[in-house]
Amino acid sequence: MEKKNHNHQWYSIQTYGNEKTVRLAILNMIEEMGLQDVITDVIVPTEDVIEVKEGKKKISERSLYSGYVFARIDLNTEIQHLIQSVPKVSGFIGEANKPTPLSEHDINVILDRVQNRAAPKPKVFFDNGETVRITEGP
User: Which of 34, 52, 89, 121 is deepest in the core (most CB within 10 A)?
Assistant: First the structure.
């Protein structure tokens, strides 16, 4: 993800859920159509979360930006329509015919979160003053 190309910019692709499926569909389209120079990166930022089910801890992945896939694209109208034709894609963030690229700051924040994954977090958070029962620990 370190390549720099002045024609390529990062875009947010809005989905109807299934971010990983959309990512795979876009990657397959890139491969089948030879678009490796046009779409250089496709990511779904995730984080690890700890769930407790039936008394057992399980680490699972959760999307950081539910409903969004991020891609570095040398965007033109044809590529925009190809991506919008992928199942479960609702469109790009921005105006209907003019997607808005992400700012350098915004994409750097996203990429930093992807590259510097923290330790798994609990999936359930508690409010101050809420009664909880501790079942294990020192």
Answer: 89
